[in-house]
Amino acid sequence: MLLSGKIIATLFLSILLMGGGIVQASANSKYAGLVMDAKTGKVLYESSADARRYPASLTKMMTLYLVFDALSAGRISTSTRIPVSRNAAAEPPTNLALKPGQSITVEQAIYGLVTRSANDAATAIAEFLGGSEARFAEMMTAKARQLGMSRTTFKNAHGLPNSQQVSTARDMARLGIALREHHARYYKYFSTRSFTYNKRRYGNHNNLLGRIQGVDGIKTGYTRASGFNLVSSVEANGRSIVAVVMGGRTSRSRDAQMAKLIKEYMGGASTGRDRMLIAKAPGGARTAFASMIPGSRVPLPTDRPEVETLTAYAPEEPVRAVAAAVNVPAAAPRPQEPVRQAAAAVDPMPTASTGGGAVGGWVIQVASMPSEDEALLFLAETEKKAPTVLASVVPITETFEKGGVTYHRARFVGFDSKSAAWGACATLKKKSVSCYAVQQ
After folding, report:
1. pTM score over 0.90
2. Which residue from 83, 179, 324, 350 has the fewest beta carbons nearer than 10 Å?
């Protein structure tokens, strides 16, 4: 009877594991999960949601976000050809077996990332849009901060092992919602079931597509260090959620846990009107998550009446270095003046008043750039120069127009006092970064 009891207990445990039960989640130290209502931002379930984990190929969600940014801005098209370097071709599987010297279209690269999770295509994209893989990773991290992903750092575009490349379940849920909201036109790629390239058919690694009602993407990921990861977007019966499972022991248990979360929490999601959960500041600038998102502490910039004209400029050499590194075709027209002169001449934002009070928070501005890519890269470079004073604030870009040309302010938001903002500027100026403070 004792032996039979052990057998029964073992079978029961196996059933729980296959069903994705709580036993599997709680017993796994790598596990993290979150379910968010995609209409309201309400967190319906979370477990270790802010614990840093390795994203593995969930990284490609941000790679694709930046591709979609470039498509939306008209800097590239789906037919633009991406060259394949020796470095990109050497990336280990999974891949598309790309060869040095060949090229693929942007759309082929997108399909390759969504279905095959192709590492060679991811690196080719990074080198094409960022000028180098390292530069593109800086752009990814800067965009993550802009979206309120405060605990995420990217070091590559594919998600292959790097001890410094980390994220959280909450940050990945935010990225999933940002992809849906900001790039609805291109989000459909995530529901692709298969893709044929060079006479080979590649199926989507997301096993829940077509198997669970309403699942329309987003991305899987796996390395030995990360375990099995999955971000899912689900829309059914007027409800919508984004769910994250990280650190699964096997792909089967990960999928079972995701299916369980969808079944248990989908019914608690709102059936109300869709709400934009990613704030867009006046003038079209895209900022971090609105305060309705749990865990977000990013103040939203607002326009203020102009009090006095400020002369602001970005250091000339860093700007040139950043601009040279951005290899983006079909860029928008740029002003004829050097960036340093343009920034000084066109940015009309006022200085902060000298009075006390920090109502609305304080912001520092470090540059004005003719392209968002340059602004994001400059923010990333600035963050590296002063990581301590900028640790608790978030980099954003804001647009404004002058003479028919759109410019992008590079700013850090979230200082809680005048002294903190001015102190940060003082530190940055010692490192040859021009800076001024603005009270929101």
Report:
1. no
2. 324
